Amino acid sequence: MSVGLIIAIVAVVLIVPIIGILATLSIYGTRKYIANAKTAEARNTLGFLAKQAAAAYERESLTTDGAPRHRLCASASAAVPADRLAVSGRKYQSSAADWERDAPSNAGFACLKFEMTSPQYFQYEYQSTATGFVARAHGDLNGNGRYSTFELKGQVVGDHLVVAPVIAEVDPEE
Question: Domain range holding 49?
Answer without folding.
Answer: 3-170
